[in-house]
From TrEMBL:
It comes from Alicyclobacillus mengziensis. The keyword S-adenosyl-L-methionine does not apply. Residues 91-270 form the Xylose isomerase-like TIM barrel domain. The keyword Metal-binding applies. This is L-rhamnose isomerase. PANTHER family: L-RHAMNOSE ISOMERASE. The gene is rhaI.
Length: 409
């Protein structure tokens, strides 16, 4: 393997040098890419028709961390794990934090859950009932408190709030209630904390959703202040939406806070990122890297502090391999985006050379980056093929002892 990699990498390096790409810089950026995995991605999930129960699924938040540690150990790229409360509620958060540390991990984004209790059927922070609104806001505040206990600096908010029928809710009133709850939560944030506001155009509300698109999330975040930013979940857009355009716009406004990566074919499918739309993922990274070169420092800083997170439900596939595949796909598309020659694109744009500009972007996508990825893994003492290493590790067989009936989501 070693010899094959060396020869392939030498050729790759020569090609890139010829194109004016600094491969050492590419390697540095690639090893610097960190991707947060979600605790719920290790649990059982399904569609609304059925949740499939698998053998060996973690039974509690500690076991979810055990599985997340496998992904980090094999890729070196996933040192943090997002938690969802109350799915990951524990008696003692210091114990969970220490356990994460003992595995070489840390707790990442804290996600309040105001969508699974019966009380929230008609809305949480936008419910017409003031007691339910208070209960929901209290939960958001409780999550800020948990952030302090686990050492997290990201509060990741998604609201299922919406309605199914015209007239069911007072849309403008609900908009104001949403902002009130966000403002109260924003005030509780410590100076090092960020609040990321996620949007979704439908589901479970099918007539209207209170935060339906990036513009609404952007407006809410802008009114709150600099610690509030927008979270782009790649699965939360209508067919044909140009997600990379949204990314570029938010970067330029200094308001892109993070991603929830997944793939979609029809709606919020939460499929493995990069499986159906790798070019979209590449183009998202291209926009981020382009913004990283901006003359405006605020745009550059925004591009640098993006929280990259996976948000997927693995309904039919094995959870840990699914997470590994996600991370590997992200690394592959990021590696390709790092090969874009931005000067060549800018030059073609200046000359209004439509096909030249399109070619300068696409050309990077068409390179085989596997020798590059193999080399950076080898240099970090990681397996060159993390998926194979996992399948051969015996871990899946070991966790079979957990039996069936692990955590759902
Ligand atoms: C909602 O569809 C979502 O994307 C939000 O991020 C939730 O927190 C997550 O999925 C898990 O349900
Ligand atoms: Mn999401
Ligand atoms: Mn989603």
């Amino acid at each position: 393997m070693g010899q094959w990699i060396d020869r392939a990498f030498a050729l790759f390096e020569e090609q890139q040098r010829y194109r004016g790409i600094d491969v050492n810089w590419v390697k540095q950026k690639l090893t610097g890419l960190k991707i947060e995995t979600p605790s719920w991605g290790y649990g059982d999930s399904g569609t609304r028709f059925k949740v499939f129960q698998k053998v060996g699924v973690p039974r509690n938040p500690f076991e979810k961390l055990d599985d997340a540690a496998q992904v980090h150990n094999l890729t070196g790229a996933c040192p943090s794990v997002a938690i969802h409360i109350p799915w990951d509620k524990v008696e003692n958060y210091s114990k969970l934090t220490e356990y994460a540390q003992s595995l070489g991990l840390r707790i990442g984004a804290v996600n309040p859950n105001v969508f699974q209790e019966d009380d929230y059927m008609l809305g949480s922070v936008t419910n017409a009932n003031p007691e339910i609104r208070r209960k929901a806001t209290q939960h958001l505040l409780e999550c800020v408190h948990i952030m302090k206990e686990v050492g997290s600096d990201v509060l990741s908010l998604w609201f299922a709030d919406g309605t199914n029928y015209p007239g069911q809710g007072h849309i403008r009133q609900r908009k104001q209630w949403m902002q009130e709850a966000l403002a109260e939560t924003y005030k509780a944030l410590a100076p090092n904390m960020r609040m990321l506001i996620e949007y979704k155009f439908f589901e479970p509300g099918f007539y209207h959703t209170d935060l339906a698109d990036w513009g609404m999330a952007f407006n809410a975040a802008t009114k709150l202040g600099p610690q509030a930013e927008v979270l782009v979940d790649t699965g939360h857009h209508a067919q044909g939406t140009n997600v990379e355009h949204i990314v570029a716009y938010l970067l330029d406004e200094g308001k892109l806070g993070g991603f929830h990566f997944n793939s979609r074919k029809y709606a919020d499918d939460d499929l493995i990122v990069g499986t159906t739309n790798p070019y979209e993922l590449f183009l998202i990274f291209y926009q981020i890297l382009e913004a990283g070169r901006d003359k405006n420092e605020n745009v550059r800083k925004t591009a640098e502090h993006i929280a990259y997170m996976v948000d997927q439900s693995h309904a039919i596939e094995s959870k840990i391999p699914a997470m590994l595949r996600s991370v590997l796909n992200i690394q592959t598309q990021y590696a390709k985006a790092l090969l874009v020659n931005h000067e060549a694109v800018a030059d073609a744009q200046k000359r209004n050379d439509v096909l030249g500009a399109e070619n300068a972007v696409r050309e990077a996508y068409e390179f085989d980056v596997s020798p590059l990825l193999a080399v950076i893994r080898e240099e970090q003492g990681l397996p060159v093929d993390p998926m194979r290493a996992f399948l051969e590790s015996g871990y899946q067989e070991k966790i079979a002892a957990r039996g069936v009936g692990g955590s759902s989501w």
